Amino acid sequence: MVISANVDTFLTLSFLIEMLTKLVSLGLIMDNGSYLRDTWNCMDCFIVHTSMLDLILSNVNLPFIKILRLLRTLRPLRVISHNVEMRLIVNSLFESFGALFNVVIVVFAVWLMFAIFAINIFAGKFFYCDIGTYTYSSKFDCNNAGGSWVRYNQNFDDIF
Q1: Structurally, how many domains does the chain consist of?
Q2: Domain span holding position 40
Q3: 117 and 50 in one domain?
Q4: Partners of 8 in the beta sheet?
Q5: CA distances (Å), 90 to each of 42, 48, 85, 147, 152, in order?
Q6: pTM given for the model
Q7: Is 48 buried (19+), middle (13-18) or exposed (0-12) by CB count in 10 A?
Q8: Which of 16, 17, 139, 142 could hold 147 in an S-S bridge, CB 3.0 to 4.6 Å?
Q9: Mean pLDDT of 93-121
Q10: What was the pLDDT predicted at 110?
């Protein structure tokens, strides 16, 4: 646990030094090529700030701090911000969300059509006798034998 904490502290401080170096060399926000004008640098800044806050509050046991510790999982995203090819892929993914959403709508419409068809064909037909699932095949026989006619959990009585 001590080695893990030391590595975490080292990485957090090295990320902070990198961020400060970029801030000094590029400027904060005023120029066109400044640090906070790039969205990847904004993400890096957010990750570094949450890591620093987590490092400062490491001895405090509050539920809010546990959420900050979960934000450590964002650190691998920093690798994407330094790799031009990975940035291109991630940007392309984000730009394709609109088209993917259209595909999801079409798939949902097709699923809905099949669900309505299944309801028309199978609604009210998925029942069994609780005392002899395969022995009694009708509600009348099941009730005469002292059982009850029960609906399966997976049925086609509604869309969901």
Answers
A1: 2
A2: 2-95
A3: no
A4: none
A5: 15, 20, 9, 59, 44
A6: 0.52
A7: buried
A8: 142
A9: 91
A10: 95
